[in-house]
Amino acid sequence: MGFERDINAILEFLPASRQTFLFSATVSQAIQRTAQASLKESALFLDCVPEGEAQTVAKIDQYAQMLSSPKQLLPQLVRTIAHDQITNSGKSKIIVFLPTTKMTQLFATIIKNLSAHTPGRSATRVYEIHSKLEQRQRVRVSDHFRGDKSGLSILVTSDVSARGVDYPGTTRVIQVGATDDGEQYTHRVGRTGRGGSTGRGDILIQPFEAPFVQKQLHSFPVQQISESDFMDQINDALAKSTLSAQQQADIREGLDTIEDGVARLQGKLDEEVCSDVIGSQLGWFAKARQASGIAVPDIIDGMMNFGTGALGMERAPHFGSSFLAKIGLSTGRGGGGGGGASRWCLSAGLPFFLTLTSRPARPSCASPQASLVTAATATARPAAAAAGTVVVVGATREAAADTRAEAATRAAAATRPEVATRAVAEVTRAAVAAMEATLAEAVRTIFPVMIHPMV
User: Which CATH architecture has domain 56-230+251-265?
Assistant: First the structure.
């Protein structure tokens, strides 16, 4: 229970003599602990579930789709949406859960673009809720989805919709990837099959996430199925449907061209956005890795494969060992990822750090300017450290590979340590303008600069 600590803190300020009511949709160990801490021993316990009747989640058909590779993630997601629109023709109402806000934003865009391959095609309505939306925006989107009677609605959401909300008529819950734990899985899948209605839950599992299923879902009535098993379910659903022969042919055409649609979409995805999404996912896994049962090297390799396989990045993003250690995913083997869009954290005791991300549209990473940045700032490092100024730890992977002799030669010929120190200081103040000659131009041309709060 996410608010257990906060509730216990509040209880300390409440008077000993009081009347207390505790309501919960589930009775987990955390809820039991809170009940013991907040209620009297003589408290009355009322169970609203009739004796002998299974909990809602136990009555929902649940499937773990074990994907053969990350490349199948997006096609399988579209097929799962299509399956619900077939089996619940005219009344499909789907909730798709993602682990992070950035994943939610990206997948909302992906689903909107790939809905042309679903039976609903352009009539499919996609809603989006996450923590980046203001509360009034969330309420408005929530109300619209709740009242949607189109039979072709999809809500793409983070865990802000996992608890405390009711969307009547939800026919399916789709979870993309591992969850925080079994309890969170329960809350998510419990958004369907409510009020005596039927529902179904599907969770899409990439190969590296398989340990999560074994560790967290072993006590749930979850059936593990392959991609071919799911295609059999789609074929059976079409055979049992009342759709005309032409409608079925149109649906099959959409399903048969999913891979082509995914490939076209991947070519349009911004690699910097994809890198940010992967970074947020790594941060999420760092918090959930013990509960997931997934080894750290497998998490890192899995997310790199997600980038190239599911998102179609030419090369996996690179995350330095210092970044991975900072978020709790240290492997002792150096950074993770390949030689695509790369990033480095800069440090110097100031209350922020910079991230420099190389863009494919910028000049080649092996350019003399890039090497100059590495060389000049390497020379400036001792002076800058003494002055308490931020210095660039790395520029590009290729430039950083220059020999020390070459770096020293370029630095001596091109600039002075104090000039480099002053230029980088200008970057930290986000001025970017009026920097010193070649070094300033190189920094401004090659690297976009983003300032993030120190975590």
Answer: 3-Layer(aba) Sandwich (3.40)
For the chain, the structural domain boundaries read: 4-38, 56-230+251-265, 344-453
Q: What would the two tokens of residue 147 be?
A: 């009242």
Six token digits for residue 251? 């649906």
Q: What value, to the nearest 5°, has the Cα angle with vertex 103 and ends 101 and 106?
A: 110
Say which residue the tokens 């992967």 belong to: 278
Matching residue, tokens 């299923």: 213
What is the pTM assigned to this prediction? 0.69
pLDDT, one tens digit per residue, over 147-156 is 999 999 999 9
Give me the amino acid identity at 411: A
Query: Alpha-carbon distance 309 to 74, whole Å?
Result: 10
Q: What is the pLDDT of residues 252-291, one digit of tens each?
A: 999 999 999 999 999 999 999 999 999 999 999 999 999 9
SS3 of residue 57 by DSSP: helix
Q: Is 225 exposed, middle or buried (0-12, 13-18, 19+ CB in 10 A)?
A: middle
Q: Which residue has the tokens 């072993």?
A: 218
- AA letter at 317: P
**Three-state SS for 195?**
coil
